[in-house]
Amino acid sequence: MGSLQESFSKELQRCEDKIKSLKVKIIRLRRRLNENQIETPSGRKQRDKVSELRKLLQESNKKFTYRVKETLSNVFSPSQVGMVLGEKSKPKWSDDELKKALTFRYLNKRSFLFIRKHFNYPLPGPSTLSRFAREIELRSKIVNNLPDVLLPEDYPVTNTTLSDRLSDHDSD
To answer: pTM of this prediction?
Structure first.
């Protein structure tokens, strides 16, 4: 019986020691937690410095973006600049941009698609150009049906539609 009591006593002592060590760890962790929550002058200075650096970074990014836009605008249209910078995934193309792209597409479909795909050159997609061509055809049909009195004398009137010309050219 004595040995059972001794082993029980030893186990109890180990458990009490373990509890004491855990209490000490809890106290240390609470101190660390409180130290991190207390506002220190050096901590405040560091936080202010980080905030100041963030503001400088944002200003620098704005200036950089402005300069890039300014530089790219010498080569690209506003919609294309937006696509290059990732600001626009689906830009609103102007009629002028669509006319130029449609002309390029009409002249050589393979080149148009190659440049658009492999060089990532920002150009309107084929469906956008088709929709624009249909709008042009609708306008030309309306114009073709106007009385001659309303049209200027030198206004060219054709019977072939743009989509007919594009589909003929696509078979090349």
So the answer is: 0.49
